[in-house]
Amino acid sequence: MINYFKNTDDVRPLLTFILAFLVIAIAALLPIINSLHTLKIGGDVILPLIPHFALRNAFDWVDYINGSYYSTDYFIWISFFYVLEKASFTIYQSAFIFQFLIYFLSGIGMYMLFNLFNAKNKLWGLIPAVAFIYSPHRYDHMVFFYATASSIWLIYFLMKFIRTKSFVLTDVVWISLLIGLMGNLPNPKYHFLVFLIYLLVVVLALYLRVISWRNIA
After folding, report:
1. pTM for the complete prediction?
2. I need a surface site. Which of 48, 129, 150, 173 has the fewest CB within 10 A?
3. Which residues lie across from 62 on neighbouring strands?
4. Model confidence over 57-103: pLDDT tens digits?
5. What share of the chain is helix, strand, coil (3-state, %, to 5)?
6. 169 by DSSP, 3-state: which?
7. 189-207 helix and 169-183 helix, angle to the nearest 10 degrees
8. Strand partners, 61
């Protein structure tokens, strides 16, 4: 939240963020409110109905092919449901929470990303945030959704670097965690697209002299 609350004596930025937080939360709830007791979560539905057993088989050694490493991937996906199962949530409630977190975190990420370069009314950031929540990505493969949210936040940290010309330790930790989330998926398109965005933005920033090689180092 780079310089989001510049003046600690002024409560208006805080109130603005709270209002945006609530609007994005409501926007994330509306498209899924009718799915609380169903498994209608769109696209490819890969729900580990018995997370305990699915987690045991997520990573394995296959003896009959000379001990080759075999992964069904989705380890993070299965782990999410496994933790909620242990907390006595039903599979329907777990699916609902998963959907909400993906939409909500995506919306907050878009809001923060827009306002990195928006010096005026921060509520303008609600437009891209809500638009993304209701964009066609909701009908894509559900199992890849946490990579969608991770991609937005990875781009946020890139733009934050362009804005501040520096990384801090917390940035490195968050970027590592986000790449770890995306790296657990079998489809590499998210890594490839984020890499292209990073490359293009950094080259353009160097060309426009927004940053220097010293900043990158």
Report:
1. 0.79
2. 173
3. 68
4. 665 555 555 555 555 566 777 788 888 888 988 878 888 888 889 89
5. 70, 5, 30
6. helix
7. 140
8. 69
